[in-house]
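Form 7-S
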Amino acid sequence: MRRFLRRLLLKPVLWATSKFSSKPDRAKIFRALDKLYEHILSEPPKKGVVIPFDINAGKFIIFSDQHKGGRDGADDFTLAEPNYLAALDHYYRNGFVFISMGDSEELWENTLSKVKKHNQATFDAERKFAAQQRFVKVFGNHDLYWDNDPIAWWHLKRIYKQEIKIYEGVVLKTNVNGKALHIFCTHGHQGDASSDGNWFSKWFVANIWAPLQAYLRINPNTPAYDGEKKTLHNDIMYEWSSKQKDLLLVTGHTHQPVFASLTLLERLYKEFQLATEKNDSAAIAAIKEEIRKREKEFAAVSMDYMNMRPAYFNTGCCCFIDGDITGIEIADEEIRLIKWKKIKDGSERQVLERVALSTLIIHV
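Output:
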């Protein structure tokens, strides 16, 4: 019966989500990002904090979109928890600052008490960073509770055993070859009416989608379900960041990793073009095969992928359907897109993309 209903209801539910939820609005998103960035710089720490760091010594790991739930059929974090715990252990032991960049808790679909009950191990791991002042917590649209509930501070103190300030964004500030560089980190839902205050989307997720997802065991965290909206949102984030000077933008929200302004498919197309120019037949064949496997994951490719400024980055998420998690590392004078995946004896860290900050500063 479940399988039959899943097949019957999946398309109507996704159609309704697309039909009635608001689309990302470019003008609203631009205004919201402008306002937040300026506010963080001019009036810290009301909405955000500025963290200066030495490019030679600073270490940051940015994870977003864990969506910790209640360990039921709607909990997208269940399979990812082992990789998440292994990753946090690694970064704690190696002296990283942990920025949790929104939608860490799935509070549209669950009560806070339910999330706390079923995620004690992850809260314990995060608490170790907090105890050493190496933890920054940013809210997103699915855990907006942390920002707007009057007793949220009390719950945070009980979870982390100390007062935890909640931010809307963070600006990491460093100097690269004598030139200032700002890395602006925020969840990325700002200005998007479908996830930033739209009454229908919140009601729909809490009262219809979550029960259906739990019963039908549907995980929506794949670009195949809403790739058009993810692509549009990433495009708008790129447009905003490309207009800034000496700034990199790092967001989450879309669950789609982006590195130096390119999605994986865009990077593959760019590599294909370069291999073609060099007449590298072996590389051409390998890249074509990878493109064939990956194309179905993406709704569109930017027409300007060969010439995009490397100003925008997206962490991806910590709730992929296979249990993998992705994030952004800033360390060793580099910025890196990393993935943690399950292997036979535990979890393994993989570096998917990397570039020196000294290279980026030339182009932004």
